[in-house]
């Protein structure tokens, strides 16, 4: 029997179990209200479930095409064109993936190799850096401003070198809940103008934007669309995070290269779910109603916290709200989050782990993709702190 104890050369020596898993387990152990990992605690539309069952009964139980069901790619193409005015050819510019996570991992694997630099804006969603590092790439960080989470575009430009191969952006942004303005997108476009840098635009919360603000998709901007993979996720939009279904759209030459890796990474995604989503997407109200649906939840959550000691800037998008707990305690955010589960039975996500150098600004993230009853119960507990 080989003994691997001292023999494994880890490609990811710093990586631990994700904070989402850790906090989720802690929530379960303490029977806490779980506002940590981002997922709805209510059911998706029964009609969508019925469409999947129907597709299974119709025999869509074997491999889907490698690039995804064409009818679904056509519906995605129509949606992007209607919303953002850009045409992606469903044949060779859109691929269906196993959630946005797989799209992002596969893009990085297809394009990033030893010594390539990838600019990551921090705090960042946790799947970017390990994907870069496992492929031998080097993440280069730009920290968002601590008060309003804006990018300092001068600093951003100073991080671009001859080794920069890729930039990853995320709007609406997890965990801050802020969105990129048109000006931000133009700054990004201009910064990359004279380069061959590829962009991953993680837009999984594109349909969760509040207060009449607009989502600025990279696909809207000529100078970005020509170098960008736009990544989407049906998990967020249709309350089906467990179905792991997403896609990416990008220019044909980039997509051609992407598919070389995709076909050996997963080959294809769930067939019946793709058939169901192709039908479900034909009705735009299924995604256009989401802004209001989640704005009502955000507002309920915020009004419930109005008498609490948390300091809050209402989020502009996503189903996450950051709260500043410094008026309650100055303990480290992970210690506070752990105490919140154990003593108050509320699970949250501490933010320092997503920042460069673990910067701790006394912030935790709550997910408000929960039933109104859960939100009322949670906020009444949080007001006691
Ligand atoms: N990007 C961001 C910013 C996310 O919050 C998430 C998670 N939910 C993902 C990507 C992954 O999406 P999926 O569940 O479709 O893989
Ligand atoms: N996107 C989810 C969040 O931010 C986490 C999904 C996961 O656990 N990988 O909470």
TrEMBL record:
Q: What is this protein called?
A: Methionine aminotransferase
Task: List, for all copies, the residue spans of the domain called Aminotransferase class I/classII large.
Answer: 33-376
Annotated Gene3D superfamilies: Aspartate Aminotransferase, domain 1 (3.90.1150.10), Type I PLP-dependent aspartate aminotransferase-like (Major domain) (3.40.640.10)
Membrane spanning residue stretches? none
Enzyme type, top EC level: transferase
| Organism of this sequence | Arenibacter arenosicollis
Enzyme Commission numbers on file: 2.6.1.88
What is the top-level taxon of the source organism? Answer: Bacteria
- Keyword Transferase, does the record have it? yes
Q: Which SUPFAM superfamilies match?
A: PLP-dependent transferases
The reply to whether Transferase figures as a keyword in the UniProt entry is yes
Q: Which InterPro entries match?
A: Aminotransferase_I/II_large, Kynurenine-oxoglutarate_AT, PyrdxlP-dep_Trfase, PyrdxlP-dep_Trfase_major, PyrdxlP-dep_Trfase_small
Under Pfam families, the record lists: Aminotran_1_2
Q: Which GO terms describe its molecular function?
A: methionine-oxo-acid transaminase activity
Q: Which cofactor does it need?
A: pyridoxal 5'-phosphate
Q: Which PANTHER family match?
A: FI04487P
UniProt keywords (A-Z) are: Aminotransferase, Pyridoxal phosphate, Transferase
Q: NCBIfam families under this entry?
A: PRK09082.1 (NF006569), PRK12414.1 (NF009079)
């Amino acid at each position: 029997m080989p003994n691997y104890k001292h023999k494994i050369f880890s490609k990811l020596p710093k990586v631990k179990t994700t904070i989402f898993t850790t906090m989720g387990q802690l929530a379960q152990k303490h029977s806490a209200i779980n506002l940590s990992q981002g997922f709805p605690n209510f059911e998706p539309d029964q009609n969508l479930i019925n469409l999947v069952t129907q597709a299974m009964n119709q025999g869509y139980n074997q491999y889907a095409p490698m690039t995804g069901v064409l009818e679904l790619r056509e519906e995605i193409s129509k949606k992007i064109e209607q919303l953002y005015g850009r045409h992606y050819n469903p044949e060779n510019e859109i691929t269906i993936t196993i959630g946005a996570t797989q799209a992002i991992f596969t893009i990085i694997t297809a394009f990033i190799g030893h010594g390539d630099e990838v600019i990551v804006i921090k705090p960042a969603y946790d799947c970017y850096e390990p994907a870069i590092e496992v492929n031998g790439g080097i993440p280069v960080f730009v920290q968002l401003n601590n008060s309003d989470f804006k990018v300092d575009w001068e600093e951003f430009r100073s991080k671009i070198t001859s080794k920069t191969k890729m930039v990853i952006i995320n709007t609406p942004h997890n965990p801050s809940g802020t969105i990129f303005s048109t000006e931000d997108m133009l700054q990004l476009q201009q910064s990359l103008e004279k380069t061959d840098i590829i962009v991953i635009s993680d837009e999984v919360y594109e349909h969760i934007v509040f207060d009449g603000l607009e989502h600025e998709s990279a696909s809207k901007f000529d100078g970005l669309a020509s170098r960008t993979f736009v990544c989407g996720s049906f998990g967020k939009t249709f309350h089906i995070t467990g179905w792991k279904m997403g896609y990416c759209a990008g220019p044909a030459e980039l997509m051609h290269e992407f598919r070389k890796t995709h076909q050996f990474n997963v080959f294809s995604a769930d067939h019946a779910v793709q058939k169901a989503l192709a039908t479900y997407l034909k009705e735009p109200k299924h995604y256009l109603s989401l802004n209001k649906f989640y704005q009502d939840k955000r507002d309920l959550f915020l009004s419930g916290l109005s008498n609490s000691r948390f300091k809050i800037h209402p989020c502009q998008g996503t189903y996450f709200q950051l709260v500043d707990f410094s008026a309650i305690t100055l303990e480290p955010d992970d210690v506070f989050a752990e105490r919140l589960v154990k003593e108050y039975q509320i699970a949250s996500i501490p933010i320092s782990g997503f920042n460069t150098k673990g910067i701790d600004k006394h912030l935790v993230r709550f997910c408000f993709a929960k039933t109104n009853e859960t939100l009322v119960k949670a906020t009444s507990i949080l007001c006691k702190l």
